[in-house]
Amino acid sequence: MERYVKGVGMTKFGIEDRPIHDMAHEAMTLALKDAGITAADIDAVVVSNVDTKINDERQRMYGLAVSSLLNRQMPIIVVPAVCGGGGAAFWTALRLKYNNILVLGVDRVLANTTPMITKEIMNAGDNFWEQEEGLAFPAINALVAQQHMLKYGTTVEDLNLIAYKNHYHGSLNPKARFFGKKVSLEEIKKSPIVASPFNLYDCSISVNGAAACVISNDKTDVKVEGSGLATDYLAPFEREDMTIWNATVVAGKEAFKQAKVLPSDINVAELHDAFTIVELIAYEDLGFCKKGEGGKFIRSGYVNLDGKMPVNTSGGLKARGHPISPTGVSQIVEIVDQLKGRCGKRQVKDAKLGLTHNIGGAGGTITVHIFRKL
Amino acid sequence: MTKNIRWICEKCNKKWIHPVDTCIYCSGKMKKQIGTTLKVIGMTKVFTPSPPHPIIPYNVIMLEDEHGNRMPKKVMKDYSLGDSYLDVADSSDNAVSVVKIKYDFYEAVKEAIELIGDVKVDAATKILIKPNLSIPGYAYIGICTNPKVLDALIEYIIEKGAKAENITIAEQSFFVPLEKAASKSGVINVIKKFGVKYADISLTEFETVNAREFSFEVSKIVKQFDLIFNVPVIKTDMILGIDGAFENLTRFLSKKTFTELAKDPTKAVNALALLPSILSKFITIGDASIGMQGNGPAENGEPGFFNLIFCSRNPVCHDKIVQEVFCLRKLPYVELAGKLGAGAYEMSKIKVIGSELESLRRDIKQPIGSRLIKKD
Questions:
Q1: Which chain A residues have any C-beta within 8 angstroms of a chain B C-beta?
Q2: pLDDT tens for residues A59-102?
Q3: Which of B155, B134, B156 is nearest to B145 (CA)?
Q4: pLDDT grade, residue B375 (50/70/90)?
Q5: Which of A118, A135, A147 is facing B72, going by the closest CB pair?
Q6: Does A139 contact B42 at a Cβ distance shorter than 8 Å?
Q7: Structural domain count of chain B
Q8: What are the domain boundaries of chain A?
Q9: End of a domain among B85, B115, B141?
């Protein structure tokens, strides 16, 4: 079944304290408008949302909340996969036999103190082996980064370059948390340590927001060419090699196989950069460079805005912001906008093939999607 | 003696970090693979606090064992790559072990006992186990001692050579028939599983013991055993602060003594402090697997999923460390007991093993009471 993206839309990602329904409504409205249809034309909805208790509007039956919001009865399913929820929702929607399917990611996590948010996100790790041992997500990924450094000689400076690149991109994206805010390499280097070897700018920023897209059987100018989802052990320490995120390898291979393209064919990509090391490992696991050469790859400039394959032109989770479930959908919004030439100052010239890579947990649930401009 | 546990299929060698009893691939039998020689292969210093980990900075070290299995461990001390990680057992009275349960209660209880120098038992050793079955409650509520902890303890001491017929679980309730609490908590199933004996302390003989200004009626049962395990569930208590080693001992007293003491809180504090000196020596195993926080010790509290086992030869040290870990207010009866020579109360004299105290500290809901709770 051939699938196309009919329309996309998202809120600005930021610190605005808006009710969830308000953000969801805006993202859906923008996506429907972009698709040139109305809510009456939607046949099904796949929504991703975190069942969080850190804001004041806890709603476990979020699918029904969307039903109320759309003022319609239709098949609505919820696909939670924490930070990978948006990608997983999109992957699920592609496999449903409906014509127009709305995919929505919405979360309001920036509604509490940093320690409370840290604890909430920590719940995505194993309770007894990780949470009880203080493995907040920066710490889990810091341990992965250290293993990569020990094994391959990757440096803090390599990671700084990823942060610098994504912040530069984000400064050009009006929907990004860091829009208009330039961050220098010096600021990145001097920022406080969060979990060694990570400093503040190695970590993505929590935001609130919503993103939506409409998948359709009706032919449009953006086709979904490849779609892969894979999972791995919950905890990185369980894996044979902490520096390889196998779910990325498997999901990537599947997506490339379906799209009948090679990593070198991709013109623009949105990679899950919850932490700088995660983007670097994704370069390797998706086959953009050899294993262990992620550091060399970022230094080459290949992934910069003026490089051969710009990565995270939206600013990524780092600078656009990471609202949890909407993240994967917002990556799709960016790639579709890039393929349609709607990205203004951060536009990648002649982008024909785009890729999104979204992760839930520390490499646990991973989706890879490839889009082609027709 | 920190252990890294894996459950491994004897047939196909697949490994799990969770206890599974059959291989889901080949139906092979599972065995435990326990790593004890631990080497530091990674570390991170964390500067972001969270409610369960409020003290920063702390370290998380990645350990690798002799089987190549890894495990993370929170520590406050700085380590270097290649360092060995080793807990040294301490059999002194002032030692308190605190062990995190990694899904396996048996290994946690065993480790907690080993860390205080282990126990010597043989086929003739008469063993008394005193849980908290004061108020009926399902295990997941944290009102009674968790039957999984009792199960682990009995399995361990039988493995060490004790005979089931020489083991007695004894308790009394001042509020309900004991059977009701034993049944609702699931402890009765443990008794049946191992075929150990069961005694209602209220039905035993009591003798009068005088200590300072008090006259206690104490069950004679405490004199009939070679080894006593005091196994309280760790709960907040609106009156006492916590229900720990000391509170659990009150049910070695007669209901008459208990009722008299309960009338006057000041008197009760002074009397509680004397309990260690009028009872036989015992080992406390504090069950904080599912404890209680907030307005305990009954239904007005809420379960606290602490996932810890405390163990000590001295109740003063035990309750002091429980109070410190959970950042609870000072316990006057424990302090007084320390002053009376029942055990070390000063933190400088108590040795915490298994985990560092600072790495364990966390705020739990304090027992402050509430106007919404009926006085009766």
A1: 114-116, 118-119, 122, 126, 128-136, 138-139, 142-143, 146-147, 150, 192-198, 235, 237-238, 242
A2: 888 889 899 999 999 999 999 999 999 999 999 999 999 999 99
A3: B134
A4: low
A5: A135
A6: no
A7: 2
A8: 3-113+207-216
A9: B85
Residues B22 and B158 in one domain: no
A118 and B47 in contact by Cβ < 8 A? Answer: no
Q: What is the pLDDT of residues A19-55, one digit of tens each?
A: 999 999 999 999 999 999 999 999 999 999 998 888 8
Across A80-106, b (16+ Cβ under 10 Å) vs e yields bbbbbbbbbbbbbbbeeebebbbbbbb
State the DSSP string of A219-264: --SEEEEEEEEEE--SSGGGSS-TT--HHHHHHHHHHHHHHT--GG
Among candidate residues A25, A148, A169, A322, the one labeled active-site is A322
Provide the residue range defining the domain that includes B196.
95-360
Whether B219 and B279 map to the same domain: the answer is: yes
Lowest average pLDDT, out of A60-64, A203-207, A268-272, B310-314, goes to: A60-64
Rounded alpha-carbon distances, angstroms, from residue A252 to A73, A322, A368, B313 = 35, 22, 6, 57
Same domain for B135 and B24? no
3-state helix, strand, coil in chain A (%, to 5): 40, 20, 40
Given the candidates 3.40.47.10, 3.40.630.30, 3.30.9.10, 3.40.605.10, the CATH classification of the domain at A3-113+207-216 is 3.40.47.10
**How far apart are the C-alpha atoms of B102 and B108, rounded to whole Å?**
7
pLDDT tens, position by position, A146-166: 999 999 999 999 999 999 999
Is residue A105 within 8 Å of residue A329, measured between CB atoms?
A: yes
The alpha carbon of residue B62 is apart from the nearest alpha carbon of chain A, in Å, by 8
Do B18 and B167 have their domain in common? no
Residue A372: which H helix or E strand, with range? strand A365-373
B155 within domain boundaries? yes
Contact (CB<8Å) A195/B48: yes
Tell me how far apart the alpha carbons of residues A164 and B181 are, in angstroms, rounded to a whole number: 62
Q: Which long-range contacts (CB under 8 A, 24 or more apart) does B73-82 make?
A: B73/A133, B73/B2, B74/A132, B74/A133, B74/A134, B74/B355, B74/B359, B75/B356, B75/B359, B76/B356, B76/B358, B76/B359, B77/B356, B78/B45, B79/B40, B79/B43, B80/B40, B81/A150, B81/B40, B81/B41, B81/B42, B81/B43, B82/B39, B82/B40
Instruction: Provide the percentage of residues in chain A whose pLDDT is more than 70.
Output: 100
Cα–Cα distance, A184 to A162 (Å, whole number): 12
C-alpha closest to that of A61 among A71, A41, A76: A76
Give chain A positions within 8 Å (CB) of B60: 133-135, 139, 143
Asked whether residue B186 is assigned to any structural domain, the reply reads yes
pLDDT at A239: 95
Give the tokens for residue A297: 């790859």
CB B106 within 8 A of CB B156: yes
For the cut 50, the answer to whether the pLDDT of residue A107 exceeds it is yes
